[in-house]
């Protein structure tokens, strides 16, 4: 199934996107910055327009009061951004509104997560990937459609969701009839082409609220299966902070499932997977599968950090006992005791170039922390 979500409440979502959605009977979820609507900020929808969207069967959800970075707020400010936004939607648009939430900029941490769970039934991130029946509802994955994303790319996401019977959430911001001048703008003609393709495939279209009703509604990841860093998508609680050239959704060289990470380990660049914080004492090892592509022999290092403090690292060739092979998958299992990282908190996982040179593409899949 697929959900079309629209962030912020820009007026072009009503004037340009709404007609294309309505004519195809596709419901959408609108995550609104409520002060923008309540105070009549320029370029945003009016309250009457929002009420029309609700009456037409769309979901109205929260995107905070002012679109603040929630991780930088005081406790009182955080409460206001979360609670007051939901309360305003309930009072002015409808009692059923404001159940679901998306954090501005995709920025959240453990404090934000604890606070939003008291106010909302779900949380949509901007971590790319698809969702499944057992997806944690406070870590919903979504693919952000910026001005550079092509119709062909989005069609590929839709085809993948159909093939694996997953739930694809895609998000848009502003729309334009002409040439986009900002990353957040998307051409209306491209949007219309995407919606027409959605209808042609027969994939089920749902609001986020409707999609949630069809999942298991898990609010925490099952503790017995370990903590997934990546397996077809970022694991629950993880964000992609990588600065290497990489693709979290490549589907050609895959160990298991439908996708794996492909990246260029060049000139000290790295995959960087960030978490709000995990207790190392609960885990015994880090396991991941690597594939050396067409070249093999890549010099790559796994490193664990707590903020800027290194906790331990090891070259994957050393961990394997031999060079990374070309053309095949190999499992790397690294005891945390080998890294000297058996206690404390870890929040950053690096898979980084260890050569300082240009190396061939490396693939990574099924990256997990193994519990005791």
Strand content: 25-35%
Just give the CATH class of the largest domain: Alpha Beta
Number of domains: 2
Q: What is the makeup of the main sheet? A: 6 strands, antiparallel
Pick out its properties.
TIM Barrel; five-stranded parallel β-sheet; single chain; globular; 26% helix; 2 domains; Jelly Rolls; 20 strands; 372 residues; alpha/beta
Question: Could you characterize what this model shows?
Answer:
The strands form 5 sheets. Strands 10, 12, 13, 15, 18 and 20 form a 6-stranded antiparallel beta sheet that branches. This protein starts with a strand and ends with a strand. The protein folds into 2 domains: 2-212, TIM Barrel (Alpha-Beta Barrel); 224-371, Sandwich (Jelly Rolls), CATH 2.60.120.260. The chain is globular. The chain is built from 10 helices and 20 strands. By secondary structure, it is α/β, with parallel strands linked by helices.
């Amino acid at each position: 199934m697929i959900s079309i979500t629209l962030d912020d409440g820009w007026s072009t979502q009503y004037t340009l996107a709404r007609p294309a959605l309505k004519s195809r009977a596709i419901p959408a979820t609108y995550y609104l910055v409520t002060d923008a609507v309540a105070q009549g900020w320029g370029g945003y929808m009016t309250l009457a327009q929002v009420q029309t969207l609700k009456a037409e069967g769309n979901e109205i959800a929260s995107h905070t009061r002012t679109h603040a970075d929630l991780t930088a707020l005081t406790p009182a400010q955080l409460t206001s951004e979360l609670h007051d936004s939901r309360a305003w939607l309930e009072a002015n648009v409808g009692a059923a509104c404001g159940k679901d939430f998306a954090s501005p900029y995709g920025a959240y941490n453990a404090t934000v997560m604890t606070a939003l769970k008291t106010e909302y039934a779900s949380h949509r991130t901007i971590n790319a990937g698809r969702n499944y029946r057992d997806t944690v509802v406070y870590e919903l994955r979504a693919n952000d459609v910026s001005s550079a994303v092509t119709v062909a790319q989005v069609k590929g996401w839709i085809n993948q969701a159909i093939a694996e019977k997953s739930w694809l959430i895609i998000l848009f911001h502003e729309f334009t009839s002409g040439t986009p001048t900002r990353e957040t703008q998307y051409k209306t003609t491209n949007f219309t082409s995407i919606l027409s393709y959605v209808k042609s495939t027969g994939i089920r279209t749902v609001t986020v609220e409707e999609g949630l009703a069809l999942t298991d509604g898990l609010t925490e990841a099952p503790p017995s299966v370990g903590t997934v860093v990546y397996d077809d998508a970022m694991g629950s609680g993880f964000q992609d902070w990588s600065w290497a050239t990489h693709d979290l959704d490549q589907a050609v060289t895959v160990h298991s499932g439908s996708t794996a990470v492909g990246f260029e380990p060049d000139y000290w660049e790295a995959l960087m997977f960030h978490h709000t914080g995990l207790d190392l004492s609960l885990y015994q090892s880090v396991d991941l599968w690597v594939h050396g592509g067409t070249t093999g022999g890549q010099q790559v290092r796994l490193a664990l950090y707590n903020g800027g403090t290194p906790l331990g690292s090891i070259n994957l060739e050393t961990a394997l006992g031999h060079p990374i092979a070309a053309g095949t998958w190999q499992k790397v299992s690294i005891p945390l005791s080998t890294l000297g990282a058996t206690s404390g908190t870890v929040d950053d996982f690096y898979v980084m170039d260890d050569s300082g040179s240009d190396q061939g593409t490396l693939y990574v899949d099924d990256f997990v922390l193994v519990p005791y």
